[in-house]
Amino acid sequence: DHIANQIAAGEVVQRPASVVKELLENSVDAGAIQITLLIEDAGKSLIKVIDNGCGISETDIRLAFERHATSKIRKAEDLFAITTMGFRGEALASIAAVSQVECVSKTPDSSTGTRLVIEGGKVKEQLPEASMTGTSIAVKNLFFNIPARRNFLKSDSVELRHIYEEFIRIALAHPDKRLKLVNNGTEIYNLLPGTHKQRIISIFGNKMADNLLQIREQTTVITISGFLTMPSVAKKIKGEQYFFINKRFVKNSYLHHAIMAAYEGLLQPETYPSYFVFIDIDPAEIDVNIHPTKTEIKFRDDRTVYHLLKAAARKTLGINAV
Ligand code: ADP
Ligand code: MG
């Protein structure tokens, strides 16, 4: 069973950034409005997420680290209306199988919290511990029990870049939450709640403020909002390009193409715009279950979405829709 867990873990946990993504998503699902991420040694020795969400009760805390023990999907029909980030109940079990985990959590209706320590998937201790409402999960020494995987990790700067990227995706999707990132004791981001525009600026800098053009379109099933950068400030390197569907970061080359088609004829050769596009759509219109890490997504009717997005982008860029 431990071997099976380790193998399954490989799918979810590829590198420190995968742990960061899963922990941050769980904090979002827990309704936290304040989330802190602490990193040491590019996540190789420590990844810790502290949130003020709903917490995990003493009776549920072990279960949370068992495979497929999700609290988020209760019946098969729920799969068609997924509104939480997680729904497979795999992440914590996978992370715990390949690291040393310390979780401290407290629910609002409990007077004291619980500490759970797991090493390589084995529970080492569970004790009451005084704590604030919410959850703190420390993931230490990732892949300590799989030296081949640990040696395969990239340099600290590469692993750190992946971690920052996961943090930024969550931060852009949730501008209403306070999010902090501390690396080796140095505060990298301290993002206050605000609008999407404020969040973009606090991540990418004040220069971005004058370069953003608003995009907006709405039908009965879909709302498109966000910002495109002016063609004149397109960069020689690939810009910051982000799509979010129902507050979930996604990669979608088809939608990317819709935006790029709207910029056609406006860009200097070999330059790339930035964009931050937020699409909200009835969950019944999408299928998020096509990839285990869920960064890809399929629309029931992607041609309609494509044309709507392209037309909205052309309007934003000052061109009559065709
Ligand atoms: P999933 O998110 O797919 O349900 P996970 O393995 O990521 O599966 O988490 C397992 C369960 O642990 C969740 O369903 C949730 O009940 C609980 N959980 C995990 N992280 C948190 C958190 N930060 N706050 C509250 N509950 C949590
Ligand atoms: Mg999860």
TrEMBL record:
A cellular component annotation (GO) from this entry: mismatch repair complex
GO molecular function, one term: ATP hydrolysis activity
Protein name: DNA mismatch repair protein MutL
Record-annotated DNA mismatch repair protein S5 domain positions: 200-318
Record family assignment: Belongs to the DNA mismatch repair MutL/HexB family.
Keywords, comma-separated and alphabetical: DNA damage, DNA repair
Cited function: This protein is involved in the repair of mismatches in DNA. It is required for dam-dependent methyl-directed DNA mismatch repair. May act as a 'molecular matchmaker', a protein that promotes the formation of a stable complex between two or more DNA-binding proteins in an ATP-dependent manner without itself being part of a final effector complex.
Gene Ontology BP annotations: mismatch repair
Organism: Thermaurantimonas aggregans
Parent-protein residues present: 11 to 332 of 614
Domain of life: Bacteria
